[in-house]
Amino acid sequence: MQNAAFAARGLDWAYVALDVPPEHLEDAVRGLAALGFAGANVTTPHKAAVAKLIGSELPSVNTLVGMEGFSTDAAILDGLEFERPAILGDGGAAAAFKHALPQARVFSRKGEWPPDVRDADLVIHATPERDAVLAELGPGQTLVDLPYPRTATAEAAAAAGARVLDGYEVLAAQGAASFRLWTGVPAPVAVMRRALGLPE
């Protein structure tokens, strides 16, 4: 997705995956800056740790520009209308959505569980659980399902008439926001969506 976007904007850049074990995280982050990387994405399980490492005020960081941290996890919320959000989960992605939605009701196995989202109009599924249906949604509700491909929760919600924005939609929104932060130019959203197999 990002390499397609760089090519579309005529940028001689490359996006590569780097597996980093937790015990080497600090060295990896400092190495990115030392090697002149324009930036990076940070994914599970490192989002909260990177936020602490770079001294960010954010609870979770998924995008680095040099040594400055940002979160584009909640970019999918742009343009959505809702009044009563709920969040399922307590990891790094959930923390980013909690930061963006301080009024949200939060369900986690460390606190209130199982989730009762009957009163929510927007539900963010930010757990790694793929196979169990964690919450029942229906017409008039929107589910943002962070894992991809779709989870059992998302499949059940769609079958029951809820609107579902799956993990690929979330990834496209995150990626476009990260692209803008790194490059300072508008993201070629249609190109990025096409690379993910999404309708433009």
Protein described:
This protein has seven helices and eight strands, in the order H-H-E-H-E-E-E-H-E-E-E-H-E-H-H. It has 200 residues and is an alpha/beta fold. It folds into two domains: 2-73 and 169-195, 3-Layer(aba) Sandwich (Rossmann fold), CATH 3.40.50.10860; 75-167, NAD(P)-binding Rossmann-like Domain (Rossmann fold), CATH 3.40.50.720. The strands form two sheets. It has a five-stranded parallel beta sheet with strand order 5-4-6-7-8, sandwiched between helices. Strands 1-2-3 form a three-stranded antiparallel beta sheet, with helices on one face. Strand 7, helix 5 (152-159) and strand 8 (163-165) form a beta-alpha-beta unit. Helix 1 (2-8) packs antiparallel against helix 7 (189-195). The chain is globular and about 50 Å long.
Please describe the structure with a list of short key phrases separated by commas or semicolons.
Rossmann fold, 3-stranded antiparallel β-sheet, 7 helices, 2 domains, alpha/beta, 200 residues
- Give start-end ranges of low-pLDDT stretches: none
Number of strands: 8
Radius of gyration: 17 Å
- What percentage of the residues does DSSP assign to strands (E)? 5-15%
Q: What structural class do you assign from the helix and strand content?
A: alpha/beta
| CATH architecture annotation name of the largest domain | 3-Layer(aba) Sandwich
The CATH C-level class name of the largest domain: Alpha Beta
Largest sheet: 5 strands, parallel
When the domains are counted, the total is 2
Helical residues, percent:
25-40%
- How many helices in DSSP terms? 7
The spatial strand order of the largest sheet comes to 5-4-6-7-8
- Return the average pLDDT rounded to an integer: 96
* Helix/strand order, N-terminal first: HHEHEEEHEEEHEHH
**Shape descriptor:** globular
- Kindly report the name of the CATH homologous superfamily of the largest domain: Leucine Dehydrogenase, chain A, domain 1
N-to-C terminal Cα separation, in Å? 13 Å
What do we call the CATH topology of the largest domain? Rossmann fold
